[in-house]
Write a structure and sequence with these properties.
Order of helices and strands: EEEHEHEHEEHEHH
Helix content: 25-40%
Strand content: 15-25%
Number of domains: 1
CATH architecture: 3-Layer(aba) Sandwich
CATH class: Alpha Beta
Bound molecules: magnesium ion
Number of helices: 6
CATH topology: Rossmann fold
Distance between the termini: 54 Å
CATH superfamily: HAD superfamily/HAD-like
Length: 205
C-alpha cells in the first residue's frame, strides 16, 4: 500500500480569492509558511522515511490563473506533480489514478491524504481510502465531510498546519526536526554579523 499527499490549489494554497481587472484573472494570494511545511514533508516523509510516495497538486484552473499557480509552485522549491482536473473530476481521478492504480488493488488499495476545500470534496465523507482534510474557510458541507478541519484559513497557515499534522500522525516530532535544522544551519552561518548586513535605512544598498 502506498500513501499519497494530494493538495487542491485554489483555497488551500491560496486564500480562495481571484483578483480581476478588466482583462481577467490577475492575482492570487498565497501563504508564507506552506513551502517550508511542504519542504519538510518531502524531506522527512518521502526521501528519509519513505512513508509517502509523492506530493501532487490538483487544480481545475486554466489560462492565466493556472500560470500563476505554476509560478508559485516552482517558487516553492518542492518536488510536486501537478495535474489539471476540474472540481467534479477530482474525486474520480483520486480513486482511479491514486487509490486503485500505481500498485493499489481492490483488496489492498492505496491511501490518499487529500487537502481540499471545494464543494465537490464533500463526497469524501464515506471514503475510507481517503483521509480528507480541509480549512476553516471551506463551505459548511465540506467541513462536515472532513476528517480534520484546520482552524487556519487557506493562504493563512491552513495548509502548513495540516501538513505538519499529517507528519505528527505518523509519529514525527516536529519541534525536534526544527531543532535539528537549526543545528545544521549553524555550520553555514557566517561568523561575522557584517557578512549579512544589507545597510541602514533610508539608504539600504
Ligand atoms: Mg479549492
Amino acid at each position: 500500500m502506498k500513501k499519497f499527499l494530494i493538495i487542491d490549489a485554489d483555497g488551500i494554497l491560496t486564500d480562495g480569492k481571484f483578483l480581476y481587472d478588466t482583462h481577467g484573472k490577475k492575482y492570487k494570494n498565497f501563504g508564507v509558511n506552506d513551502s517550508l511545511a511542504l519542504q519538510l514533508f518531502h524531506e522527512e516523509m518521502i526521501v528519509k522515511r519513505q512513508l509517502f510516495d509523492s506530493i501532487s497538486v490538483m487544480t481545475g484552473d486554466r489560462g492565466t490563473g493556472l500560470d500563476i499557480t505554476v509560478t508559485r509552485l516552482n517558487n516553492m522549491r518542492v518536488e510536486m506533480n501537478v495535474y489539471n482536473f476540474f472540481n467534479d473530476e477530482k474525486p474520480t481521478a483520486i480513486d482511479r489514478f491514486f487509490v486503485y492504480d500505481q500498485g493499489g488493488t481492490e483488496e489492498n488499495p492505496n491511501m490518499v491524504y487529500f487537502i481540499g476545500d471545494d464543494i465537490f470534496d464533500a463526497i469524501y465523507q464515506d471514503n475510507e481510502n481517503v483521509m480528507f482534510l480541509t480549512t476553516v474557510n471551506a463551505p459548511a458541507i465540506v467541513k462536515e465531510a472532513a476528517d480534520i478541519v484546520s482552524k487556519y484559513e487557506g493562504g493563512s497557515g491552513g495548509l502548513a498546519d495540516l501538513v505538519l499534522r499529517i507528519m505528527e500522525m505518523h509519529g514525527l516530532d516536529i519541534l525536534r526536526i526544527f531543532n535539528d535544522r537549526v543545528e545544521r544551519s549553524k555550520e553555514k552561518l557566517p561568523t561575522a554579523l557584517n557578512d549579512r548586513f544589507l545597510g541602514t535605512t533610508p539608504h539600504v544598498k
